[in-house]
Amino acid sequence: MQANVQRVAVVTGAAQGLGLAIAENFVAEGKKVVYIDRNETHLEKLKEIYEKFYCQEKRLMFLKLDVSDTAAIREAVGRILQEWGRIDILVNNAGIRTETPIESITEEEWDMVQAVNLKSTFFFSQAVIDGMKRQRWGRIINMSSFGGQFGPLTSSAAYAASKAGQIALTKVFARALAPYNITVNAVAPASVRTPEMDKIPPDKLAKMVETIPIGRAGEPKEVADLVSYLASDSGGFVTGATFDINGGRLMR
User: Which of 115-118's residues contact partners 24+ apart within 8 Å by CB, and which partners?
Assistant: First the structure.
């Protein structure tokens, strides 16, 4: 363990849902946290809420960023390194989900989903690994999905392919970076209460819950706690793995 180091965590898609829960966990653990999202309104609201509690400690940063823009990713990483000198943890959480049937998916939709979900995972990870190699410590966690393993129940083929791609990238990066004490893992949630679930009609939601062996939907904090473990010193012997957190909907 590196003594007396205040970890710096970067979370994409951090303005709501799972990303917000993950970022809040990191804040509670005393880390410096960078909230990245393309929704400037949500970011400003969070900044206003947290300012009185944490911003005076100079350990929170809020960056508006479209993760499909590779140049913007490099610029953001440079800004964080200039401000805080290091990046220890990256959570690739930003993503979009579509439900278009395979017959109707356009090239534009396909490219958009891959750019946000998959391309950003590769290029954000690429942008942080030089610093992690130098400090010989790093944690990268890719937020994949049940749909990337089982095939989508409602999500589009574009979404499922992007999430399966994240799992493949997890293994590639994990093998390449293990000699530098950098671990790379994926988390594959399903049936967790997020803003996406709020869009599901109550009758359809009830039927979905019936398919979950645990008998309920998951909570964002449960996913965030798993991510916190993978981001910790205790998770140092775990790499290249995909963790299912879905109440038993997929067992393997």
Answer: 115/68, 116/67, 116/68, 116/162, 117/159, 117/162, 117/163, 117/165, 117/166, 118/161, 118/162, 118/165, 118/166, 118/169
